[in-house]
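Ticket reopened. Same input as before:
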Amino acid sequence: MTTASLRGGPEPTARAAVVSAPAPTAERAWWGTHSAQRKIFGYTLLAPAALYVLLLVGAPFLFSLWLAVSDANVGDPVARFIGLENFRAAWEMDTFWIAMRNSVVFLVVAAIFKSLLGTSLAFLLLQNFRGKKLIRGLVVIPFTLPIAISVLSWKWMYDSQFSVINWVLSRLGLIGTYGSDSWPIWLGQPHLALAACIAVNVWRTFPFSAIVLLAGFTSVPLEVIDAAKVDGCSFFQRFRHVVVPMIFPILMIGLLFDTVFTLSDLSVVYLLTQGGPGNASKILPVLAYQIGIQAGNLGRGAAIALFLVPLLLPALFLVLRNLKRREY
Amino acid sequence: MATQRTTRQKETRRHLLIYAGLTPFVLIAVFPIYWMLITAFKQEPDLYRMGNIPFWFNLPPTLKNFSILFYQTHFGDWIINTMTISAWVALITLLTAVPAGYALARLRLPGAENIGIAIFMTYLVPGIILFLPLSRVVATLGLQDSWWALVLVYPTFTIPFCTWLMMGFFKTVPMEMEEAARVDGCGQLGAFLRVVLPVSVPGVLTSVIFAFTLSMQDFLYGLAFVSPGDQKPVPVGVPTELIRGDVYFWGSLMGAALLVGLPVAVLYNFFLDRFIQGITGGVVK
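Engineering reply: fixed in the latest deploy. New output:
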């Protein structure tokens, strides 16, 4: 033993020996134990899914960040870094701000209507009555139809001349006949086009709101409500202080999923109006598609799509927090 | 007697009130589907007679719209494309999501919970952010303008969702089953394949259904990656190819919508509660 080792612990080589000496056995033990096998087995089973998601969601997301700061376009495979130029260009584009405003209006107005309709429907479906299953099955059809398909039906109902909606309104005397000033052309008039698109979104998603709420209501144990009743709470007190706090997490998740789906969906607007007339119903996803794919300006398109991120981020954050609470 | 009658009257009144409340919802929800149905079987002149009541046939019903659909458009191709795409997507999803769900739910891996959440979160990354970079990926692989592009990208949302679904499902299978299998001399893989998987058939089937219905809900990827008319899946082909300029063949369009939409809607309907459970992530027990 050297003096050095007496004063300051083992010499470097000796120290290494001390650390590494048990290592082979530990390693053998690590490989050999039941739990280690389990881990290797587990990560092997996990790998394909994790890789797929990393390669085709994670990497493309990072790639979209790169596209947004490059001058990539369809014709020219070599993209150069151009800094924040795409964001600046979007920022200075009138259409971008119209699309941004329309997106926010779309989201908020649709959310108000679908929560009103969804809540009333959920309260009705909460009751016990005959034929409940059948009625529930019918009411959720809008949500279960493939979206591009149901939009077609609406396009026909919004037809400029043979709209069935106008036929009914006209027979009721609410509007004039075809050709008169009061005959609405749903998809052709600036102030109606966005409203018509919002209506389709509300039609499609109010059953979703209702079912999510219903799932929340039925998760509140009856005993809790009875206990509150015994304690002398009125209906509204019970609702406000017992039911709402208990279903709040699921309510948030439903709302946030809806936010993500509504903000990022282009099919309704694209198929009904292509964002027109003019830019009256243009929303961010449609603009990103038109610039990125139709005009071939990948960089600019990616930058516009990324402007959705700040709108989506609070939603993602809240979902994450709620998922963490999931019980096992 | 009297009280019995009043309770029955009360019950009837309650039912009537509920039905009255539900009627507008059912009407709003179902009318567009009814409108598809009646339009699909109408003769063309019948669609454009505003003098008549449009809710029923004013001329005898016809199957002409469907024959146009099958003989003069790519509708048949689209159905085959969709079926083939869905089969591949379901296969890829099963081969990846089922083992992943099992690993995350049962094998007590360090960080399993966070990995599970991370995978599920990717379900929330919207296509509108991914489609431009993915179009580059698709082009690099030489898959542009073929439905194989969709086989590649659809699992980006079916894998996260189905992994999450299978995680929840495997948690409900009793641990003792595996332990018993291990005692009987099964290896880890054996226990998974021969004991846990057979009792998880309902969960696996649910995943297949979602691989199918979620693929049918896509429009953006199909629109952006596949342009040749005969390569499109049905939900993209119908709205983009059957409309030529300003000419709308409403009868055939609605016929196509009906043939595609109804089976999906019915199938999805049966599994809707699973979908809701899936996305609310077990907040509802």
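The first strand of chain B starts at residue 243 and ends at 244. The mean pLDDT of chain B is 86. Please confirm and we'll close it.
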